[in-house]
Structure formats: C-alpha cells, structure tokens
Design brief:
Rossmann fold, 35% helix, globular
Amino acid sequence: MATDRTASRRIVLTGAAGGVGTMIRPLLAPLYPGLVLSDKATPAGLRADETFVAADLTRPDEVAAVVAGADAVIHLGGYSVEGPWDAILQANIVGCHTLFEAARQAGVRRVVFASSNHAVGFYPRARTIGPDVTVRPDSRYGVSKAFGEALGALYADKYGISVTCLRIGNVGPRPLDVRRLSIWVSPEDLVQLIAIGLDHPDIRYEILYGASDNAAAWWDNARARALGYRPTGRAEDHRAHAEAEQARIGPDPVGDRFQGGSFCSAEFDNDVARAGPAD
C-alpha cells in the first residue's frame, strides 16, 4: 500500500489513557515516532519519544492546543460505555464536534474516528451487514457514535478532511465470550486499520469494521480488505475460552438475538419481535 507517512508527521492520539489507547500505544509508537498523546488524565508509562498534552474535549481552547500543527488525529477520546445522556452528550457529541472543528481550523488532513459496533447494534445476529447499512444504535452511546460518523462525513465532504470511521468490535488479547467471537479485534489488527486511515492515499470518507479474521463474523469488511487490510488475529483460536466464559454469563433473551448484546437488553421495553429492522 502506498503511503504518505514520514517521520516528521505530527500524529495526535486522543483518549490515550483509556483501555484501548493503552493497548495500542506501544504498537503505534514505532510506526509514528513522536506521537502526541492527549487525555484528561496523564497516561501511564510515557515513552521518551511521546508528548502528552492534557485536554478536556468539551473545552475548545484545550483541544485547539492539542491539534495545533497536527497532520492527523486518531480520535479515541470520549465516554467509552453506555451512560447518562448528559455524560454522553458532553463527551461524545459536543466533544466530537469540538475535535473535528479544531482539526479543521488547524488544517489537519486526516482523522481516524473510533466509532463502534453499537452504532448498528440492533441488527440481528443472523444478518451479515456491510458499512452502508442504515444505523440502528442500541444505546445512547451508540447514538453518539452514529453522530460521529455523520459529523465525519460532513467534514470530509464540506472541508476535504480525509476521515476513516472504524466501527470497532471488542479490542483485547482474546474474545471474552461467544458474542465477541464475531466482533473481536486484536490490538495489532486495530493498528493496521488505523494505519490505513492515516496513510492510504485513496481515503476520502470510509466506514470500516474493526474486526479480526473471525469465522463467525457478522460484518462484511470487504472494503477494508480492498484498502489493504490483512488481519492476522483469528477468534476461532480462542473459542474454548469464549464458550467457557459464556457459560458463566448465562442467557439473555433480548441481547442474544442482536449484535449489540447486553447494550440492546439494557432498559429494553419493547416486544423483541418489533425491535431491529423488519425482515
């Protein structure tokens, strides 16, 4: 894959102190020397070649200071689970807009946005979906990720920023249960997808799925593969562990039907037959 990567590029990683940021920082560092990290809290184990700039995503002046002079942003920052509406609104909607607008004003050329499988969580597990389906969020958190995808499209089309939205499944060393056998992504494969967003010359606006080479996948990730994605993680290698953990969890009559799992069943007050897209 042709790239425009150079050692002099200034790459910003928001949400650097979070769980995913902590997992991928050691993998990003050799690819993008001089990574600029940002979060409200200082990340543990700062490397000599990493720079930390504290910022609250809801404060435009702080975000502007983070992205000043940046060539690209990997935007992981925000509220990472379901929560009260005001918390989601401030961190993931107001904060996401603040980031994109600061990036535009600073002349940032590329943004990789950490979207989520929860933007499409109310699709049934029996259905394979691609990146072009209508969003079916399963939570307030999922709504905020659908908003981020739409905002990214606006900034790509109106302002010419190259935007890649990654609908991330579940990141970690191995799948945690049977649901995650379908949506798991290894940290190494996630970094490979981020690199496509940062480097591929043909990126204008893309939605790609953050998933490894999963035999039980619910998502068609052909577009990612067309851009050069070659996942090395295989969820099936961890099936025994996932099934053992699933036995501990037990059944979920609503969540087991839909791709979003427990995000769908939480606060659910509907006839399950009326949830999700009509057949």
